[in-house]
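Table S2 (text version). Query chain:
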Amino acid sequence: MSSKRDEPVGEQSLRMRAVARLTGASDPRDSRASSAAALAILHELASSPATAADSLKLLHELQVYQVELDLQAEELRRSVTELEGALNRQVQLFEFSPAACFIVDRSAALCELNRAGARLLGFDRDAVLGRALGSFLEPDSSHALHAVLARVGDGTAADGCGLRFLGRDGAPRSAYASVGPDPAGQRFLVACIEIGDPPKSAAR
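Corresponding structure-token output:
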């Protein structure tokens, strides 16, 4: 009666031994050594008539699996490149938008703003971050902005109002503000389009 040592090694046992050698390394730097060891086992088993067929079949499956991994890695790299391009595009759209864009929190403190927003306020961005947007507005406009933020915070999809900015040069500037929730968190996007005052009627 033959012992277990003399019994042919089945395909499942081959798979387990090869996979263990391929994936058992705890350090990624050991992966090449593990792969070489697994191939050495397959070569050893392929030399035995009792295990040659199973080892060759498993070797083919591992080769196909490696090709699949290479294709998946290539697709992942392509997807990352596309996502990075799309993200950069969105950043550029925000940064160079002709509308003055402000990201504010519930207290209307400035968290982010684009170039047009800095021009509208008349200050460098670093100088205004953290300050209340209302501090750059006439009192009535500040109250109107906070009322819109409250409505949007309570669930209104979007709302708007007219605002009067206190120009740094002393001349007020009028704008229409569209306010919506920031999808990224508990903040709001305030987009302002500057508008001119209506012309005065000509005297008769």
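Notes on Table S2: Helices lie at 11-23, 31-46, 52-95, 115-121, 125-128, 139-153. The radius of gyration is 33 Å.
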